[in-house]
Amino acid sequence: MRTTTHRTRRTVTLGLAAAALGTALTLGNSGTAMAAPIPPSGPSQSTSNSATVTGDQQHLQALPNDMQTGFDLWFHMGWPNWRNIGTRQWFLAGSFADSRTHQQIQENIFTGGQYNDRDGALRDFMNAGGAGTSGPGYTGTFQEYNTTVYTTQGTSAVPNRDARRIVRALSTGDVWWTSDHYSSFHYMGRF
Length: 191
Fold this sequence. Notes:
By secondary structure, the protein is of the alpha+beta class. It has 4 helices and 8 strands.
């Protein structure tokens, strides 16, 4: 009798443990699925090296709010590029007086130079017609721009940069943003 009771308890215990594990796995999967980011709308194209390009002329991808200031600065500066500034360079984007200290604060922004499109993601997108009629056959140059605004240049010739960039096709004006350092691109249109 004791053996039967022991087996029954063991079976019930294993059954409860399996049920709890199954419930935990189900809840874990649901939580993961709910927490997954929602991809931008519009067509998406994968490239051979897993970078993706989302959007097209009819489905432009809005820039995240935290990249807007940097984008606006480059746009108002007329998109300076490596043909006339060198490959990497700091720019004085503006200045303002701190209302508390009345001290002059400089805003600096950095351009990373030529973007080489080594995996071909942007050229594939343009050649497929996503950027419109000037895209197919594009062999031109791309320029990389940071969107972080710094209040000091620091002592380094290159800042400690985050993963956010703007990439622009110089010949057509087509612009993409990336928040994950070129794992994905989001087409914004022509600027």
